[in-house]
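dumping this here so i dont lose it
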């Protein structure tokens, strides 16, 4: 335990030291994320060195915790960290996560042709699933607009008592209960396009409103009976009684009801987060770029002098002397534009004078 605490303290010190070396203009959130990555990297490097060179500086539990905990954290950083830092888009972040998972499987010797085939088939099914939802949502949206359905929804939601707050309460309750039966994709492709224009008409910031809906729709992964996270846990949880390898005790199987009840605290946390975002909008909008207001009365347009109709001065030719200067003066006088002269007439006159000079 002492070696684990020492490793934690050393990695924390490395993170703080790196944070102090960052330029003052670096955003705080970026500094925190990058410094945490540096600290975790230092801990992992020390654990690798301890195992490779048999330094025996870390206890077995500290080394095991490091090798078990850090690779998944690195995988999470490849997906969310790169998106958070602006290095990758969400699509690119997903691709980086897939590549990281592939590298981890290869490093642990668990990658096989059967596993690759299973992953590719699952990816194809999920992609087809999302594509057909998008097609169905598009057909539904066009049919709904053909009968002016969006106007019905707009009149219904804008007429709710309480204004913006009443609209937010009703919409979040609606999305929360629909999440019991609809997946995140169906909600995003079908429900959000219906309520988004209404929120815009009520003067609600659409970026903030999108974050509120995203936090709400995340509960769809934990709702029974169709929550994806519940199915994932069911697939890895033991179905039968088994013997623990360390304690040699018999462990009872985990039931589906236990998994459902175990998800309730996390659903409550999501609901509390929705309330906090609604109560304190600055949690979302505080980091957004402020709108730049331009005073149209203060705008000034400046144009460089010159062009057709302006007085032109030719460079004196060699040996021209006073005769060349005298020949230039009439042309300069003739080149002066009249105040109310048409620009096309000035252009024609200028071309005629150039033609006379060539003759």
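and the seq i came up w/
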């Amino acid at each position: 335990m002492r070696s684990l605490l020492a490793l934690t303290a050393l990695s924390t010190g490395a993170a703080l030291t790196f944070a102090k070396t960052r330029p003052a203009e670096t955003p705080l959130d970026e500094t925190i994320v990058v410094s945490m990555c540096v600290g975790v990297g230092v801990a992992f490097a020390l654990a690798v060195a301890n195992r490779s060179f048999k330094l025996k500086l870390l206890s077995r539990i500290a080394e095991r915790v490091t090798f078990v905990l850090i690779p998944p954290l690195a995988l999470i950083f490849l997906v969310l960290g790169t998106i958070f830092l602006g290095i990758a888009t969400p699509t690119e972040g997903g691709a980086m996560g897939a590549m990281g998972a592939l590298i981890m499987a290869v490093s642990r010797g668990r990658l096989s042709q059967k596993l690759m085939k299973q992953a590719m088939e699952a990816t194809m099914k999920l992609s087809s699933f999302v594509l057909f939802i998008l097609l169905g949502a598009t057909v539904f949206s066009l049919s709904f607009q053909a009968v002016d359905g969006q106007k019905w929804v707009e009149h219904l939601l804008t007429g709710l008592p309480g204004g913006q707050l009443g609209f937010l309460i009703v919409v979040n309750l609606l999305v929360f209960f629909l999440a019991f039966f609809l997946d995140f994709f169906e909600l995003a492709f079908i429900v959000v396009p219906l309520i988004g224009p209404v929120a815009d008409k009520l003067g609600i910031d659409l970026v903030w409103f999108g974050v509120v809906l995203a936090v709400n729709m995340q509960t769809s992964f934990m709702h029974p009976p169709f929550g994806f996270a519940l199915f994932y846990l069911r697939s890895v949880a033991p179905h039968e009684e088994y013997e623990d390898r360390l304690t040699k005790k018999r462990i009872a199987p985990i039931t589906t009801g236990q998994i459902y009840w175990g998800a309730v605290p996390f659903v409550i946390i999501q609901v509390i987060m929705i309330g906090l975002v609604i109560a304190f909008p600055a949690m979302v909008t505080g980091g957004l770029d402020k709108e730049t207001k331009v005073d149209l009365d203060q705008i000034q347009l400046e144009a460089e002098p010159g062009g057709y109709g302006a007085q032109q001065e030719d460079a004196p030719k060699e040996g021209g002397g006073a005769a060349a200067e005298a020949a230039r003066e009439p042309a300069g006088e003739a080149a002066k534009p009249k105040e109310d002269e048409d620009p096309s007439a000035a252009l024609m006159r200028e071309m005629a004078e150039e033609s006379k000079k060539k003759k």
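Confidence is low (pLDDT under 50) at residues 312-337.
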